[in-house]
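Dear Dr. H.,

I hope your travels went smoothly. While you were away I took the liberty of generating a structure for the chain from your last submission, since the lab meeting agenda had it listed for discussion. I wanted you to have the full record in hand beforehand rather than looking at slides cold. The sequence, exactly as received, is reproduced here:
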Amino acid sequence: MGQIIYSLDDIKDCYLNFLQKSDCPKIENLTNWGRNRFFFNTYFTVKHCHHTSSKIWIEFNAKTYDLDIAQAPDFLDQRNYIAWLQQHFLHA
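The corresponding predicted structure, in token form, is as follows:
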């Protein structure tokens, strides 16, 4: 596990760092689900994940969030993806 995200402000920096990491598999070769899963596993504690569904449960600031990755914008769409993720943390 890498650096943990502790605040909403950390999300954008960690996202950009994740995209630029040279030791990661080429994320453009992963599906949108794979990109999300790899990002969440790197920066959050994954509580539960079904490999046959789009649901993933992650921990952020001692709270568990249920995310439906099928509803997420494309992972490589920085503005919309970060806004989607932050929105879930603010309104859950």
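Two observations you may find useful: Residues 8-90 form one domain. The helical segments are 8-20, 32-43, 78-90.

With kind regards,
E. W.
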